[in-house]
Amino acid sequence: MINNIDFLLNKPEISKHLKLIIQPLAPLSMVSEIPGSYYKTLDTPDKFKISGLLENILGWHFSKNDRGKIIKHIKKKSARKKDYVPQPSNSGFQCLLVDYFEIGMVFKQPSVQYNDYWKRSFTRLDSGAGPAHPNGTPNLDYSIIKEKHTFLKNGNISDFFEKRKRSYPMFYTTPTPREYIDYEGGEMHISIHMDPKLFDQLKNALLENSTAYLGNSEGWVDIKIEEI
């Protein structure tokens, strides 16, 4: 369910004092910046990560293009249009809710950080001797498997890929080192002040679903919000 976004046209009123309780269901990897070859996690989620989590609960899975359109609409129609300055995260994610809450003290259980490999997705329409895209995916349309086997007896993978791009997945994957944090079953408690309209929408959304992802799509958590 996608909840109403009309309240984004109103000036934020940060008057609700709440406690956000996050129960990680899997190890998390909360990367705050676009890295080079290594993805380092935060110990606790920052404001942008919390914003993304709340958007997930609300069902706001907007594309980059749609987010741009929403921001333009806010600038044009909002009661706060003169004061509205979009706040992208360090990774370039355009958050829509960061003006509607503030976070305070964070309490977390003891945690363990470790390195693992993450399947990073790319798309490339390259060619050459051994293109990354066809060599980086184990999947292929079953209807051309026999054709591929016959073709490669006398041809090469580059030529086959150029002829059959639509039969390959859109993305290929490559293993990338990434840091994860395991809270070992413990919860995070975060003091948060929030706009009442945002709180009302979250309260209704949580009646139907309290799970979402935090950090990346593997970092599933269960959340509760309590009034203080």
TrEMBL record:
<protein>
    <submittedName>
        <fullName>Type I-PGING CRISPR-associated protein Cas5p</fullName>
    </submittedName>
</protein>
<dbReference type="InterPro" id="IPR020031">
    <property type="entry name" value="CRISPR-assoc_Cas5p"/>
</dbReference>
